[in-house]
Amino acid sequence: MKHYYEASYGSRDYEELLLQETIFHNANGYIGVRGCLEEGLPPGCDTIRGSYINGFYDFAKMSQAEKLCGLVEEKQTMVNVADTQTILLKVDGEACRLEEGEVLEGARVLDMDKGITLRRFRYETPQGKQVQVEIRRMASFALLSLFTIEYRVKPLNFDGIVEFVSVHEGKVENYSNPNDPRVAGERMVHLRQESCGVRDNVSYIVSSAVHSGLGVCTATAHKMTPALDQEQEWVEETSVKKQFSVFLRAGQTAVLEKYTVFADSIRSQNCWQTAEEEMGRALSCPLSEWYEKQEAYLKDFWENSALEIAGDEELSRAVDYNLYQLLQSVSKDAYGNIAAKGLSGEGYEGHYFWDTEMYIQPFFVLTNPKLSRNLIAYRYEILEEARKNARILGHKKGALYPWRTIMGRECSGYFPSGSAQYHINGDIAYATVAYYLATGDLEFMAEKGAEILYETARLWLDVGNYYNGTFQIHTVTGPDEYTCLVDNNYFTNVNAQYNLHWAVKIYRLLKEAGMEEKAVARTGLLPEELRAFEEAETHMYLPYDEKLGINPQDDSFLSKKMWDLEHTNKEEFPLLLHYHPMYLYRYQVCKQADTVLAHFIFEDAQSMETIRNSFLYYEKVTTHDSSLSTCIYSIVASRLGMKEKAYEYFGDSAKLDLFNTHKNTKDGIHTANMGGTYMGIVYGFAGLRLKEQGLSLAPYLPEKWESYRFCFFYQGSQIQVEVDREGTRLTLKKGAPVTVFLFEKEYIVT
Ligand code: BGC
Known about the structure:
Structural class: alpha+beta
Distance between the termini: 27 Å
Bound molecules: beta-D-glucopyranose
Radius of gyration: 27 Å
CATH topology of the domain at 4-301: Beta-galactosidase, Chain A, domain 5
CATH architecture of the domain at 4-301: Distorted Sandwich
Oligomer: single chain
Number of helices: 18
């Protein structure tokens, strides 16, 4: 099956074009370029013309109205580094722009097998001259610094001059909107241009981020067919422009290939020199070869990661789209991670959240454990900052990961629904353990994982306290951001319990293997601390309400007023944009899955009856205003046998960005939800679980589907799962035989 998405192009619906900038962005985990039109939109139209580097940031002031102790006063923000996507086209002297002439027929395509986007259209100038235009773009997976544009123009009904002006602009800004808390509020200049020039036909712009001092270099070069009649160049203070013009007869094609490479000072000593070397590599072979490498890379990706669905084509396309975006977004090294919006836009300013660990890691851990290891290695790299963060919040021991960050320091301006989400520690611990369970990579645990587990576990001891014989955790915020600063959030407590359990467990596993020393030496872990971890784990307080038979979200949740969701106006969603936070906090109303998420992740902590009762209870008060919600409801509905509900929630999750259902996809894709779509099938419909006790599956087929199929890695082996009307077939594709519990019965897949 082809992995392909197509949308129409040509109308002057500028809002749709803004949305398409996100939908058709090109990224490879290192760089991301929004899918803006090369020629731009008419003046006054909203556009977010951005190019980003994963992990590249500037510092920006965060104003706090009152200078309370330890509040965050500086944040990091992902920087728009340059504009290399501008190419202006003229045919026989007339500018080729959407607002000038007429697009007679056109489409935009994302080809996920080839790894390119394509804008194809037939255009008629006001003078009646027609051209066929095809523009292919690629962010190369084979050479991560490389972004290419292949621009083809063919006159259809005239002989005349085709002219391109290609621009490399260093003076760019980030997008801001003072009325939306989900993007940067204030307009700021983040880049200082240091040099701009041309050498050996390659333009270079070197800039540095004003406050972080990080350096970035972008370089562009061109190849033109047919050979040129005329070429001109202008080097200005912050930009380089190059003009190519050629006389064509009707039916002939001109092709301009534009190569951009990016280099940054986080990953290289001298980014100008790195850019020069990378450009050398980029130009060393024809573009067609880069296309071939791209296709080969993606062939491998789909072989390992595809979710093949028969029976619902629209949904299947949306699923493909989501998986592809995860690959585009994930950093390929430990200098970066996965931003909430990937590299597709500036929503949440390029910050990394728990989204990575709880929603996206489950995909990579099963399909590409190497990338999963990188993501944890990134958390290891910022562990020292997390220790400092813990001290800022008054904790004497342990590490507290920041709620949102790029380089490791906390960036949340509003702590009640930011820094107070201590569960991030448990989430990172959870993902570290999941990586271990999926791979058995004890060496990585000895090197990095154990230290993360010890330091996060330590923090719980400092945050919590014993009361009436139970270990309690007060004044934290759980995943649900409409309920803040509460005592004993169920999700947090059960998560902390798991974290404590695994800190001890990993210590023991390492000790058995004679590998415990490194992490112990680095953390100074003492035997009495391990005992204290065990003690807190055993006595962890998990709120339970006898009358309702559910786990209350926290100690006070059930005593609050109920929000009447049924009679709330549609226009009032998301509630966070219409109600003061204090107002929301006094109600039983949830932005997203909280206890229900806990019941998916830590299902063995409760009986099925409690999980069912809780699901039905929280469903009534959950708005799903966060994109991280419906996928979880789908998975738990699957677990509870509520198949129709599961399918409905799953559809909401899968289509969120392609159908712009949250109305903010212009600011970027929702990567956590995309990971959630994967989980909806693999953990939901197929019931896969990775636990200490082993690997289990309990698949069912959604009524509408004829079949589905996927592969995953487990401890070095690869297994294929096929589910159809006849049942489930497991096949060993690679590696040693694997023990699997299928509907609780043990099998060996050979
Ligand atoms: C959600 C958080 C999430 C963040 C970034 C918020 O709307 O409530 O759980 O981490 O978005 O995706």
